[in-house]
Design goal:
Blueprint lengths: L3 E4 L3 E8 L11 E9 L1 H11 L4 E4 L1 E3 L2 H12 L2 E2 L4 E3 L5 E7 L4 E6 L8 H11 L4 E5 L4 H13 L3 E5 L8 H6 L2 E2 L3 H8 L4 H7 L6 E2 L5 E4 L5 E4 L12 H14 L4 H15 L12 H8 L1
Bound molecules: alpha-D-ribofuranose (RIB) and sodium ion.
Amino acid sequence: MKKIAVVGSINMDMTVTADRIPSKGETIKGNSISYIPGGKGANQAVAAGRLGADVDMFGCVGDDSFGETLVNNLNENGVCTDYIKKVAGVSTGLAVITVGENDNTIVILAGANDCVDVEYIKSVEDKILESEVIVLQHEIPQETIEYVVELGYRNNKIVILNPAPAREVKRDIIDKISYLTPNEHETSIIFGSDDFEGLMKKYPEKLIITMGSRGVYSVDRIGEIINIPALKTEVVDTTGAGDTLNGAFAVSVLNGVNIKEALVFANTAAGISVGKFGAQGGMPTYDEVMNRMK
Ligand code: RIB
Ligand code: NA
């Protein structure tokens, strides 16, 4: 069976809800606190797993109770955790999240995610290469991302890079991947330009820009703009919406669907996911997405 390999971060999300996010220097009262599974890598793996795909997760956790909880959670969502490394004496990745009414802020402590180094990748390389699609984000060391991109490129894999959180991406890396999926802010940082249309025309069917409530954009090979408007739905928590989109997009690509249909599917999944609290809360099953697309 065809598979997806996610190489990325695994975090515990310490999520505080408040009526709004505080402004600089301000203290406000919160409403609740929860410890819930997150991390962009794990989130994208769970998104794909819930949609029924065969997913292998590659990453690291610490030898603490959060690590154990997070590995169990991946398993419960149908993600294979056989190759996750438990690193002694290191803390599992942690994200401190504030969820306001319409937005959120996130501070990350990488912890064990920094142990996802080239040496670890070399030890699981043959396992990664069992997958047709490789999915990466920006919460592991840059060097590792570049190594995996090269590996995927040399072996004719479909590589999806979700460049979040924002940092620069080398031109050579962009050339070697199949899809780059930044939001607007990440696009500006990566390309040093806000000419989104021009950029998408330069990278047709490769650069996919997510624009929150304005939906998702790309340009097809004949230069026509593709825009899939955001789903009209009640928003409870947008944390992980981008991750749902990437995980779902990976599933569509694995199934050989064309880019427009893949984006409709991914956008629908992301729209459904914001209806529930937590990065992984609300990530839909395949049938839920299909029903919503009818
Ligand atoms: O994309 C959302 C994720 O970003 C959260 O789950 C948090 O862990 C951070 O990595
Ligand atoms: Na959610």
